[in-house]
Amino acid sequence: MAVISDDTALIVRGVLRLGRRLRAARPDSTVSLSALGMLSTLHRRGPMPAVRLAQAERLQPQSLSRLIAQLERDGLIRRRPGKEDRRTLILEITAAGRQALSRDMTARRAWLEGAMRKVLLPGERELLAHAAVAMLRLADEGVAEEGGSEDEE
Question: Is residue 144 assigned to a domain?
Fold first, then answer.
């Protein structure tokens, strides 16, 4: 088993705690985190077949089918036949889906902006921005890219 350094443990703790806090800042009437991830991917990457969306979101097709059905019922995504192969269903985000995604992200960004203004010392915000770029590179390590990272918006 690999030895974990103190700085690695600290980074994991900080990322997980901040992630929990950002999830807590979500609006009450919002979609699930899995659904939000799907909406974000469709928003960022554009329409795609369900198989590609499942790969991007690291979901099993069975889980994806239920989420797709719910998002379609809620009017957040739509399905259409593929141009080359009419049997392939292409998923795309709707205007309502973009609004739901924006509402969620706006609430979390507002919380984070206020917290950074209140808590961070001079220079720490810039340091955090540099760390965020490095963390995005780390998050993409070993991930087959198809035009974007796996994060929200």
Answer: no
